[in-house]
Request: fold
Amino acid sequence: MPEPELFETLYAQRAIRRFKPDPVPKEILERIIEAATHAPSGGNRQPWAFVVVTDPAKKERIAEWYHEGWVGMYASDPNRPRNAVYRSAEYLAEHMAETPVLIFPCIAAGGGRRPSFQTGSSIYPAAQNLMLAATALGIGTVITTFHMRREGEVKELLGIPDDYVTACMIAMGYPAEGERFGGAGRRPASEVTYYESWGG
Amino acid sequence: MPEPELFETLYAQRAIRRFKPDPVPKEILERIIEAATHAPSGGNRQPWAFVVVTDPAKKERIAEWYHEGWVGMYASDPNRPRNAVYRSAEYLAEHMAETPVLIFPCIAAGGGRRPSFQTGSSIYPAAQNLMLAATALGIGTVITTFHMRREGEVKELLGIPDDYVTACMIAMGYPAEGERFGGAGRRPASEVTYYESWGG
Reply:
């Protein structure tokens, strides 16, 4: 099988939220996480860890907390959009327990403090590598943060130590029938690119 | 020219901090930034903008502030490492003005508040796409945050509005003689991967 190309994969990535029940083989997960660890991090400190959850009972608990976060932060917002992204996200919130794999990229936070905005520069590139590697291998992913309201419970359930925080939750699996890669709608880059100064 | 492969590019990426003086053609910059805009963002809101700086006078100012940040946050730390990464970062801090291109990925922050840690999930994946696309095209990059101490001045110089913040600064150019892609040292993924719970 030929290796997938970089630009093809960058353009193929889109949020996939409906999955087949098939498990993702462990050797595939290892390859995906190894790709994640090749991302940059400040001072090459590699402050990350990746917690992979496939256990049905654990996924069930996380799914409850996730749904609560979804309702509290999004579904109850009177100004929420009612578009295809919303409906797809709603489907995921109601079926999270059926997702084959949940991965929590974690970062060492130091002293239990909430890390700063720019600390994310040492973990979200790794999360993106992880999703790109999955995409290249035909595995759908979506990055979410609706578990954050219940992050304490999630960390306790998974035994994540006090000095680490979860950066996000990546739901993952082979795309369900009818899901597709590519074609994610984006504004033209020219509208968000400025030369030399804002507006330029 | 055959398209570069995804995994090859993920493994080729490493911090490049010494550049040839050659400019990066505008059509290449456009392709790189378009790749960035295909990254995921919360609710597909695409809250980003990219400010590209090549103007020598502006780079000179930014280089001064960057050097100040470097000294204050790193070079003056008595526990700093004295390894190859340090020396390479020191070189960059002293030669930033000569870097052909500086790109500031910015994110809408809302009300001038400092965005939260997890807000980074909507901008750093785009920064990573940008760096991967550059790598695939033979252009070296390094992601840095030492300008943050002087972010207010940087924003003023570049006309970045109050309701946006810079997520990082990406220095970019064709690698100088002796610089190479690939071979970035990383701990084995197996040491940072846990199944079902921490330590598992």
Observations:
- The beta strands of chain A are 48-53, 101-108, 140-144, 164-166, 169-173, 193-195.
- DSSP finds six helices and six strands in chain A.
